[in-house]
Amino acid sequence: MLMGISYRQKGFTIVELLIVIVVIGILAAIVVVAYNGVTTHAADAKRSDELTSLVKVLEIYHAEHGAYPLCGATGPDTTHALTSGTVSSCLADDLVPTYISTMPADPVDSGSNIYYYAAGYQKTGTTTFVGNNTDNFILGNKQATSTGPYYSGWGKSDLTLLLGS
Predict the structure, then answer these.
(1) Section 159-165 average pLDDT
(2) Which helix (H) or strand (E) holds 140?
């Protein structure tokens, strides 16, 4: 037997392991929260860009036909009727493929997260519009990161993005 020589066991104590696990958990939580915020902002940016592009396509259509498309029927809205619905149901027949290759769709595409179109309505403010049977249109959508102001339209009360002529 050797005297004065001590042997040290190799490895980590349970306390050290628990500290490492807690630190990894905290870092993982931070990463998940940051990732969710980034993807939500990216979806809102896509919504805004797609609807802004659709406004430009509608202006080209108007320049060529003298009116905006009528929702529910093919062709320009020369009577300036008040019609509305989803972008895909109202505009696909008039715009695809001549003016746009495919109709844009919201990344979520359900509930209030749908692109809406209305002919014969005029945008009067950031969150207001009026149905005045004129040669105008509005587009609407719900932005995920918006805290308001909200406007009502298309039977929804939580829409936050309103574009139009």
Answers:
(1) 87
(2) strand 137-141
**DSSP structural state of residue 142:** -
Report the alpha-carbon distance of residue 31 to residue 80 in Å, rounded.
Answer: 51
Report d(CA 72, CA 89) in Å as an integer. Answer: 7
Please classify residue 137 by burial: count the beta carbons closer than 10 Å to its beta carbon, then call 0-12 exposed, 13-18 middle and 19+ buried.
Answer: buried
For 72-133, give the secondary structure using H, E and C: CCCCECCCCCCEEEEHHHHHHHHHCCCCCCCCCCCCCCECCECCEEEECEEECCCCCEEECC
Structure confidence by residue, pLDDT tens digits, 32-71 = 887 777 888 899 999 999 999 999 999 999 999 999 998 8
pLDDT at 7: 64
For residue 36, give the amino acid letter: N
**Whose CA is closest to 145, among 19, 36, 60?**
36
> What is the value of pTM for the model shown?
0.77
Q: Residue 134: what residue type?
A: T
Beta carbons within 8 Å of 116's beta carbon, 6+ residues apart: 84, 85, 86, 87, 139, 140, 141, 153, 154, 156, 159
